[in-house]
Amino acid sequence: MNRRRQWFTMAALGLSLGIGSSMGTSAVYAVDQTQLADELLLSIDDAVRLAMERSLDLRAAQHGLVEAQKRVSEEWGSVMPSITASASYARNISPAVSFVPARVFDATAPEGEFISLQFGADNSWQSALTMEQTLFNASVLVALRAAEKFEQLAVETVRGRSHEVATRVRILCYDLLLRTEEARLAQSSTERVQQALKETQAQCAAGMATSYDVLRLQVELANIEPIILRAVNGMKAARRQLAVELDLEVSSRLKLRSDEVLTDTMQLAAAVISIDSVDVLVRQSLADRSEIRQLKDTASLRKIQVRNEQADYLPTVSLFGSWDVQAQQNGGPQFFGDRNSRATSKIAGVRMELPLFTGLQRPSRIAQRKAVQRQAQTQLQVAQDRAAAEVHDLVEALNEAAARERGQRLAISHANQGYQITLARYRRGVGSRLEMTDAEVALRQSEFNHAQAAHDLLSTRVRLDFALGQVGPQDE
């Protein structure tokens, strides 16, 4: 049973290292070269760049930008002249007849006598070419400005969405590295416990250790198994989420390169943000954060919409003209007849329209737009206050994570030194098995705590960059 449990531990550990290739060894890669050929090895920066190319979330925002650009083109069409051509043909199967008094043509005709007159020929042709050019329309000018502001908002939305995607991808990579580091640390702990178990079993056979010492080590080895399983499941979950962000169907193909190490945070942990620098960071957040920029653009757009409603009080002036051709003929249809049955007309003029009364609809619409504008300004103020508070919180969390990382790094050094001392004492027969077990547990916990602190430090740094609106290459 003990050998079976040890075998299960090593098998689960090997599976975890096979999934987390960033910490894998050459022995793991040599297991299946065909599978290795299908792997997608990425650094964290590579994963971010790939997400910028393949993310469906970002692609949806880009489609919104295309819509905004086409809306600007549509509004420019209102400024250009409109030209319309029309043509029609009618066949009078029974031409219309009107009756007029006979005295119109014959003064001697008796009173009450009428003569029927037919108006129109068998075939009737009509065509027209009309043109209208707006000379002044305040609503069109304001709508054009609103469309341009909407495009600007869509551009900022794409930028903000890219920041969100990049931040999520980086945090998922750090989660994957954390679970991989946990698997590596579990392997180291397993090797230490197995070595101690082997020595203790030999001592027990020689009568120098008790069966309780052997049982205690076996229990400790069994306690490591859930850590390995949790790390494996965590890596699978992080890899699935990362595959969604990268729009990849098979998540098992994703591998982080071996040079991506979670605990390489010594330089970042040494950088402490002073309290005096927080105000500078808050101003940077209010200026560069995409969410704040979007709300500012939204507030400006609402203001333009108020002006658009107010523009209805102003007159509209337009220039118009038309060229008409009419023709009628009897018998078989002949396209627009001949010169004797065809006539043309030309019209040109200026039109001005000024709505005088619309049933109090305009004041109501203006009041609605102003209410929406005040709502947008309130939302902007709330977002600015929350952004300032978030920057303060993240700076404090970053300094705390840096202090934890430094402390846990020192704790690992002390715990490892204590474990080596305890192990040497135990091998000389002057130390107890309990002391060595406690030292190994303290070392393992210190290593896990350091990995968690490094993960929190990197994740908090990424969240702070997102809060400041400076995520990285997406701003170029």
Structure characterization notes:
With 476 residues, the chain is an alpha+beta fold. It is 64% helix and 14% strand. The protein contains twelve helices and eight strands. It has helices spanning 2-19, 26-29, 33-37, 44-54, 56-79, 138-205, 211-246, 266-270, 278-288, 290-310, 361-428, 433-468; strands at 40-42, 82-91, 97-101, 114-118, 123-136, 254-256, 316-329, 342-353. A four-stranded antiparallel β-sheet has the order 2-5-7-8, with no helix packed on it. It has a two-stranded parallel ribbon with strand order 1-6. The chain has a two-stranded antiparallel ribbon with strand order 3-4. It starts with a helix and ends in an 8-residue tail after the last helix.
List the helices and strands and how they pair.
Blueprint: H1 2-19, H2 26-29, H3 33-37, E1 40-42, H4 44-54, H5 56-79, E2 82-91, E3 97-101, E4 114-118, E5 123-136, H6 138-205, H7 211-246, E6 254-256, H8 266-270, H9 278-288, H10 290-310, E7 316-329, E8 342-353, H11 361-428, H12 433-468
Parallel strand pairs: 1-6
Antiparallel strand pairs: 2-5, 3-4, 5-7, 7-8
Helix pairs in contact: 1-6, 1-7, 4-6, 5-6, 6-7, 6-10, 6-12, 9-11, 10-11, 11-12
Distance between the termini: 60 Å
- Overall pLDDT score: 82
The chain-level structural class is alpha+beta
> Which regions are unreliable across 5 or more consecutive residues at pLDDT < 50?
1-37
The CATH architecture name of the largest domain reads: Up-down Bundle
CATH superfamily of the largest domain: Outer membrane efflux proteins (OEP)
Gyration radius, rounded: 41 Å
Largest sheet: 4 strands, antiparallel
